[in-house]
Amino acid sequence: MKNRSEAGQAGKPRSGCSQNSAGRGQILSILQVNSRSIDQKSGEIWTGQADLQPISFKSDRLLEQRPLLQKRIPIHPRSVRGKFRTFKWGVLILAYSVFFALPWLPWGRHGAPAQAVLFDLASRRFFLFGLVVYPQDVYWLALLLFLAAVLLFFATALVGRAFCGYFCFQTLWTDAFIAIERLVQGERPARLRLHKQPLSPEKAFKLALTHGLWLLLAFWTALGFILYFGYAPGLAREFFSGQAPQAAYFTVLILTVSTYLAAGWAREQVCIHICPYSRFQSAMYDPETLAVAYDVARGEGSAGRLAAKPGMRTREERQAGGHGDCIDCGLCVQVCPAGIDIRAGMQYQCISCGLCIDACNGIMDSMGFSRGLIRYDSEENLRSARPGRPRLHWKRLKIVGYGAALVVVAGFLVYSVAHRSAFEESIQQVRQPLFVQLSDGRIRNRYQIRVTNKATREETYLISVRGIPQASLDLGSIHRLTVPPGKTLMVQASVKLTPAQAEKVEEFEFVITPESRPKAARAREARFFSRHGSL
Questions:
Q1: Cis bond leading into 74, ω under 30°?
Q2: Cα angle at 212 between 206 and 215, to 5 degrees?
């Protein structure tokens, strides 16, 4: 089947910003619609895959003829070697190692499972190594979400969608699913032949094996997720013996299906149509932002790109004919997981994974040309008369602002965690009735005292008062309040003052002291009411 590079004639301009050799000065514009390139001059649609034939119709009636929902064209990326592909494999291995191994990492603690990371919903405690987080610390989550958002904006303003290309869960799992597909079905040409051929025993076996391994990885991903919410060894045994809670089976089912569909079937459609980041990321781009870009001036020359045919292989020969360094091999399209042609300019479908850079650098090496025809570069540098070496432009007000916000919020979060209290207390006055005058003339106010032990050990607390006589505090038969780790206990307290004392007291303090750490005592103000209208 004729591919895109074979469809064009030698010397014909192919770029969206190159002029033809006849000097007519006509610019061929390339529109990008759902990963398809439309050449307005010829009215041809290119699907973004080098081996598919163009579909011709009038481009001026494009909007009327395009259906709202189009059938997805499967993308079969070619494997590639290079520093960006190596970095992606490194990130994938690290991410998978952390995700699947972390629930099995032991961590000794008192009164809780010996698991390093555990989200214990039953007891409303979240264990992160030596840190225990309670629902009262929910503002930490707000700070973390804020940090994640600012970090994403900070990285995008510097290096574009690098997060999408290297660290996003969708990208990581899609890479693993594509690796499984390549292992079973072969390299890209073999997968394309398998896709086009009619159903046969060989095709049925390879497809069944591929989808079976996909489901296995999706299931293992879902199982690894639920192990964070229970003691991993025990929960795994209960799961496979049929004794786990129903919520565990339901969660595994939902996550298995969603992972299988997102990474196996939808793939780039998630990034293009579902993830909102691809839609608003352009608002964070600046002319100085580094992004994957094609050097049009170098690649097109004055007469456009041209295949490396005899007489047009060396740089001198190509420059003499007005052609650039791009030999129109199509590898940059074939390795792209989104199926786009980076030579058509910046597109929101691009996830900045850098695989097209690796592919192009390999071709440049084989041709004896310098690398960097496709590279991370800024718009400002590319449009200059003599582009310099790409570099990070961090001395910008936006970048400095994002960085300052990261430092301030991260510092506050670290300070808050480092100086967190080992317990929390609350004092609530019983207002029905507001006060009672006893038979001996004394006035009584009642209070509910709640103490939450946020430490990992059992703790005993002493309750006293400050600002009024100690004898006025009545805790009944409770002299010491012993609270297990992660638990909250409540005690009823009564304060009884004579009318003369009550006239002099409007506020006093309850003092709650951990018996093992007297210096960590905390005082909380309370009011004493002795007459109506004193509110």
A1: no
A2: 145
**What domains, with CATH codes, occur in the chain?**
2-65 (no CATH), 83-280 (no CATH), 295-383 (no CATH), 423-527 (2.60.40.10)
Record the pTM: 0.78
- Give dist(CA 175, CA 282) in Å, integer: 25
Which residue type, as a one-letter code, is found at position 83? K
Please measure the distance between the N-terminal and C-terminal CA atoms of the chain and give it in whole angstroms: 88
Q: 11-25, 184-198, 224-238, 477-491: which has the minimum mean pLDDT?
A: 11-25
What the block records as the tokens of 379 is 């718009």
CA distance 527 to 447: 10
| Three-class SS state of 395 | coil
Residue 109 has what pLDDT? Answer: 77
Give backbone dihedrals phi and psi of 369, rounded to 5 degrees, phi first: -95, 160
The contacts of residue 110 (CB under 8 Å, 6+ apart) are 456, 457, 485
**DSSP assignment letter at 301:** B
Q: In what order do the strands lie in the sheet with 459-466?
A: 481-483, 459-466, 507-514, 522-527
- Taking 50 as the threshold, does the pLDDT of residue 532 lie above it? yes
**Cis ω for the linkage preceding 433 (within 30 of 0):** yes
Contact 130, 321 (CB under 8 A): no
d(CA 371, CA 373): 6
Q: Which pLDDT belongs to residue 65?
A: 57
- Residues facing residue 524 across a β-bridge: 510
Length of the chain: 535
User: From its phi and psi, is residue 94 left (phi > 0), alpha (psi between -120 and 50) or beta?
Assistant: alpha
CA atoms within 13 A on the CB side of 344: 23
Tokens 């040309």 — which residue?
369
What percentage of residues in the chain have a pLDDT greater than 70? Answer: 86
What is the C-alpha separation between 374 and 107, in angstroms, rounded?
47
Tokens of 126: 């979240």
Residue type, 87: F
Give 429-468 pLDDT, tens digit per residue: 988 888 898 998 899 999 999 998 888 788 899 999 999 9
**Residue 507 near residue 467, CB atoms below 8 Å:** yes
Tell me, what's the pLDDT at 33? Answer: 35
212: its two tokens: 């079976």
- Tell me the mean pLDDT in the region 286-295: 92
- Whole-number pLDDT of residue 236: 95
> Cα torsion at 58, 62, 65, 66 (round to 10°)?
140
Report which DSSP code applies to 198: P
Q: Which of 295, 424, 421 minimizes the C-alpha distance to 364?
A: 295
pLDDT of residue 182 exceeding 80? yes
For 26-40, what is each residue's pLDDT tens digit? 333 333 333 344 343
For residue 453, list its beta bridge partners. 423
Give how far Cα 205 sits from Cα of 176, 212, 260, 302, 304, Å. 20, 10, 19, 51, 45
Cα atoms in the Cβ-side hemisphere of radius 13 Å centred on 121: 7
Alpha carbon distance 473, 492 (integer Å): 11
